[in-house]
Amino acid sequence: MMFSIMAILFSLATFFSTLFGGLFAERFKNKLYSIMAFAAGVLLGVVSFDIFPEIIEQIKINDFNPTEIMIALVLGFMLFHFLEKAVLIHHAHECDYVEHKHPEVGVLSALALAGHSFMDGVGIGLGFQVNAAIGILVAIAVIAHDFTDGMNTFTLMFVNKNSEKKSLAFLLLDSITPLLGATSTLFFKVSPHFLVLYLGFFAGFLLYIGASDILPEAHSQHSSFKLIGLTALGLLFIFVVTRFV
Ligand SMILES: [Zn+2]
């Protein structure tokens, strides 16, 4: 019972981390191109230095089949690609003038991030089910990267032509879901096999939005070495952070 209270408290910290990340993006929305260039680096960094080492560790411990996890990755990439382009194809039929930004794409991205944030909360809860030390370790990793989850939620909503108010509403949803995820672990358990498949799936989703949405959007007005440098900085940031957790 003690541990479940700790899990809820830590997911409360996640709530603020996500919210502040989103509010940061809102505050600097005139610098969104720079923020997006940085965020693209962060996403690649999270996949390379956070998620993949965890997957490899789980494969070693549990002797999982790596091919299954790579299929989950490809599915994460392709499912999101399909959903996003299906929205665009649908709109292209509706009007002659093809506009490349659609609020639905922003909503889709925000919902995927909210689903992920729910799993962040589940991760914290499961960590505490094992023991407090692992719970705290997972919580630190989640709290540290959820700042960028919030940033991405607001940014992806806002650049896809959703109103500021609606973008903030989805930011709030993304902030609350870790709490719901952590609370849900009081009632069920998830197998390590399911978790590692989810990690692969989520890595595919992150690679897709990083390379196909956020990075092209960051360079949509003009490309510069500064933007490329910010992407490298985002990568470096996650590399350094993941050395400590
Ligand atoms: Zn997260």
Helix count, per DSSP?
A: 8
Shape assignment: globular
- Round the mean pLDDT to the nearest integer and report it: 87
**Class inferred from helices and paired strands:** mainly alpha
What does this structure look like?
This protein is an all-alpha fold and 245 residues long. Helix content is 86%, strand content 0%. The chain has eight helices and no strands. Bound molecules: zinc ion. Zinc ion binds next to helix 4 and helix 5.
Short description:
The protein is an all-alpha fold. 86% of the residues lie in helices and 0% in strands.
List keywords for this structure.
single chain, 245 residues, mainly alpha, 8 helices, 86% helix, binds zinc ion
Write the layout of secondary structure elements.
Blueprint: H1 2-27, H2 32-62, H3 66-94, H4 103-130, H5 132-159, H6 164-184, H7 192-218, H8 225-244
This protein binds zinc ion.
